[in-house]
Amino acid sequence: MSLFNTEQEDTGMLFGATPGFRLYKLEVFNWGTFDDKVWTFSPHGETALLTGDVGSGKSTLVDALTTLLVAPRKVAYNKAADSSAKERSITSYVRGYFGQKRNAEGMGQPDSLRDTNHYSVLLATFQDQGLSQYVTLVQFFWFQDAQKLPARFYVVADKEMWIAQDFSKFERDIRVLKKRLKHSNRVHVFEDYTRYAEVFRRKFGIVQEQALDLFQQTISMKKVEVLTEFVRANMLEIPNTAVDVDKLIKHFHDLNSAHEAVIKAKNQIQQLKPIVEQGNRCGKLDNQQNLLDKALRALGPWFAEQTVFLLTAEITKLEDELVLATAARKQAEMIQNQIEKNIKEIEREIYTNGGGALEALKKDIQNSKETLERIQKYLVSYTTQAEKLKLPSPTSLEIFINNRRKLPELKSAEEKLQGQLNEDFTTAVTEGKRADNDLKQVTAELESLRSRKSSIPREYIEKRKQLCQTLHIAEDELPFVGELLEVREEEESWEGAIERLLHNFGLSLLVQEKHYQSVMQWVDRTSLGIRLVYYRVQLQTVPPVSGQPNPLSVAEKLNIKPNTPFGIWLARELRQRFTHICCEKMDQFHREPHAITKAGQIKASGRRHEKDDRYGINDRRRFILGFSNQKKITVLEENELILKDEVKYYQDESIVVRKRQKDSQDRLNAVTDLERIADFADIDTKSREKEIEEKEQRKKKLEQESNVLHGLQNQLNNLEEKKKAQKGIFDKARTHEITVRNKLDGLSEDKESTAKIAGEATSGMREQEYTFLEQQKATALLNIRFTLENVKTLERNYREWIESERNKLSDEIKRLRGRIVRLMTEYNGNYSEETKEVDPSFESFSEYERMLAQLEKDGLPKFEIRFKKLLHENTINQIALFQAKLKQEQDTIKNRIEQINDSLSTIDYNEGRYIRLEYDETYDSDIKDFRVQLKACTEGALTGSEDEQYAEAKFLQVKAIIERFRGRPSETDIDERWTKKVTDVRNWFLFAASERWRETDEEYEHYTDSGGKSGGQKEKLAYTILAASLVYHFGLEDQEARPQSFRFVVIDEAFLKSSDESARFGLELFKRLDLQLLIVTPLLKIPTIAQFIAHVGFVHHNDVKHQSMLRNISIEEYERERKAREVARYVQVV
């Protein structure tokens, strides 16, 4: 059956009967201004007119029909008159509101025909003559207790029912009425609209819920505002894609879990690899260090072996040299003996010729010269020491004696000076060490302070750091009190006194209950080296601070760090423990039981007084409170400069004193040396020189007295010269022989001892350590050739090089292990569940190595296989199916439009022209982007790469869509609207109407809406589009499949502004569709439409009683009465 085909198909209907369910009658009881009785409108399935003056109650009856058919949440009352949603409601209809009156307060309130003790009933019976079937719809309203909104129940009956007969005589007990109805034949009672609507839609053959929305929209539709929106909302089915979206979200949940498992495994591997790589490197470095340790032990034997080679060669060389040296010595000795024999013979001859006396004189002269030489040395020494003591040179006995007398006094003075200098040196060294220690402490404190904001001393910060690292607690979770308090800026004059009062409290740690057990145990088992106080703080049990504190109390001069969880606890503790009043004057201090002065005097309990002046009250170096330590840093920087000057001063002072000590000691030694020379004769060189001169003159005289003796003496002198020369040759030869022999003996002993050391090498040492030493020799010793002279130096150099390399390795291993432990700690923090049995220490390295191997071999591959399987077999396949379903919906819409167009082509929209619906793809960027994204998800799914990058790229493409389906955090509403828009295939199309010439099929005009058209043209387009929509939604184009059909349409005030031509076009169109039309319009339009009307419902309103009345008459009777009224008016005028 074509969309507008009016020929009856053989569906088993009675011959001549009108097809489909049509309104047979409408009954209302206590509905709006239709009051106190059952009012019935009876069109009997025929096209009818509901008319009356404006405000008479026509829309009240239309709203009754809307209430019976449309879902309560969608009902819009009096829509045709464009009334607001608040103007009419179920309550206003059930109560019968007709106006307003003033209450006692002068405010307006609705005036009603009925109170809450009344009930209301709406009943509509629909008849299908062809199938000889009735369907009655009923809604019953009443007020339960004092509820503002009326309650209701619903009835669907497969027979005709009446309000007077079926909904009365139940003694105002709703349960009795329901029970009676439920026991009635072919009557179904429902408590909610959903089930009620499902049943009556099925009986009417209405498949889509949209049909009832269109029914309501038809009532007030005068024009098509936007054709695309109208077609989407009224002519196309809502695609059921929500279930598919939910399936995709569920599949993605599994896929996302698998992806997270892959990412987690990759991240674990990424974090474990550096640990294992660094650990393996650490192992290699350990092996290298062990080799260096072994090489150090092997260095002695190795160098001993090298030395033995050198010694052997040198010994061989010396043995040859010794043979030559011995022969040379023997030759020189033989010549020397001959010369000495000749000398003795000459000496005998000289003695015989008087040479004895001369010889004795020579010996005496020689002895005197030797004595003079000794005395000259003493004189030089005396003179040098005397100069140190600023004493004159001893040129005479008198000077010598005077010098000697001064020595005791000089000695005493120097000894006294020595004592003073020793004290000065000790003081300089002690004070220098003290200043240096203070400087180191201040420098360390500054370095610590610059790395943080608090003023807590470094040793406390380091102890907390040790505690937190051991227990894996963030340092800011264990604050010192001093880090959370500061003296207010305007109270700076009290800062020193408050710092002194709160010093010990400020150095206390605050420990939350969750950390208490572990902190307590750590403190107990650890030697702290400092005094540590900590407080157990149960944050949940701390009551708030109450009462007004004294504005002069210490607590009120302090700021507590904002946003600290310990704020309430600190405020309470300060209020309770530090109630001291800050006293400017002593009489106030005297009165207060707990008080403090700016000078730092503290009073407690009215009795105990304390003032600690061991350091200055404003010594900021001791301050510990505050959120910033910049002032403390400035003071300590100044102190650091002073201490540096002190250190330099004492260093310079100790050098000066040490020099003075040395000079004094030199003078004291000089006194001692001069005291040893007790006789002037010991330094009298002049007397000795005179004595030698006299003896030389006597010797000369004796030599001149004998010529024989003179000749013998010349011979003797010549022999003595030869002897002397030969002795030199002999001594040299003997010395060389001894030297060679001694050297040979020494080298032999060295070889023997060195060979013992070389023999300590084991075979394993020779294979590994000796090989290493040989390989590194060139690097360590710079290719220097071994000799006996440098072998010891080279051994020392080689040892130093190995030790240096070992130290470098040790430092690197230490740093590496520290880095590894930090990486382990970080890994444990990130994956606490996987590492709860593993300590972050180098000893646990094998565990981390095992975890990495397991992840690389089993974990990650398994996760990746599952991820790819879920990605390809589940998610992408589901997306492909989803895409196919959307494509199918798209094709369905295209087919539906073509089907409607086939029917639209059968009627003339204008003479020689017809209307055709056209569609095009939307330009909406969200939808276009969504379709591109959806296509990208499935591209390459069958032939795509299996590599990791491809899978990850596909996952991200899928994720981008599913996350919006699921709703991103903080953008849930936006994503929900986006999902509804892009998955509703109706939104993929833009629609327009094309008016075409029937002969040429050329376009005459293109409509996307009815803008710019006359009122009649707008209504004409609206009727045409509306007719197509009604036929589609009521299922009138497919009567073979569905013999039931719904044929009832209401147009309320639709013809108020339309032209007669447009009105006739619309009525003829609905007539061709074989639809029962209920036209609701004022009286002035009736002549235009009378020819199409079979029944008239005339509504009248009594302004006195505020009640509406309904009269049913035929169109013929109405026309007769109208003409009679016109004749009467004419006669009256005449």
The CATH architecture category of the domain at 22-220 and 1046-1134 equals 3-Layer(aba) Sandwich
Fraction of helical residues: 55-70%
Predict the CATH topology of the domain at 22-220 and 1046-1134.
Answer: N-terminal domain of mukB
- Apparent shape: elongated
CATH structural class of the domain at 22-220 and 1046-1134:
Alpha Beta
What's the pLDDT, averaged over the residues? Answer: 84
Poorly predicted regions: 1-13
Report the total helices. 30
Count the strands? 24
Q: How does the helix and strand content classify structurally?
A: alpha+beta
Widest sheet, order of strands: 2-1-6-7-8-9
What fraction of residues sit in β-strands?
A: 5-15%
The Cα radius of gyration reads 63 Å
Gap between N and C termini: 58 Å
Largest sheet: 6 strands, antiparallel
Task: Show the helix and strand layout.
Blueprint: E1 22-31, E2 34-41, E3 48-52, H1 58-69, H2 90-95, E4 97-102, E5 108-112, E6 120-128, E7 133-142, E8 151-157, H3 163-166, H4 174-182, E9 187-190, H5 193-204, H6 210-220, H7 227-235, H8 242-352, H9 355-388, H10 397-450, H11 458-471, H12 481-484, E10 485-487, H13 495-506, E11 509-512, H14 513-525, E12 534-537, E13 558-560, H15 567-577, E14 581-583, H16 586-591, E15 595-597, E16 602-604, E17 608-610, H17 630-676, H18 685-704, H19 707-758, H20 763-767, H21 769-781, H22 791-830, H23 845-904, E18 913-921, H24 925-938, H25 948-966, H26 972-983, E19 989-997, E20 1003-1007, H27 1015-1033, E21 1048-1052, H28 1060-1072, E22 1076-1081, H29 1086-1089, E23 1095-1102, E24 1107-1114, H30 1115-1133
Parallel strand pairs: 3-22, 3-23, 11-12, 14-15, 21-22
Antiparallel strand pairs: 1-2, 1-6, 4-5, 6-7, 7-8, 8-9, 10-13, 15-16, 16-17, 18-19, 19-20, 23-24
Helix pairs in contact: 6-27, 8-19, 8-21, 8-22, 8-23, 8-25, 9-17, 9-18, 10-17, 23-24, 23-25, 24-25, 24-26, 27-28
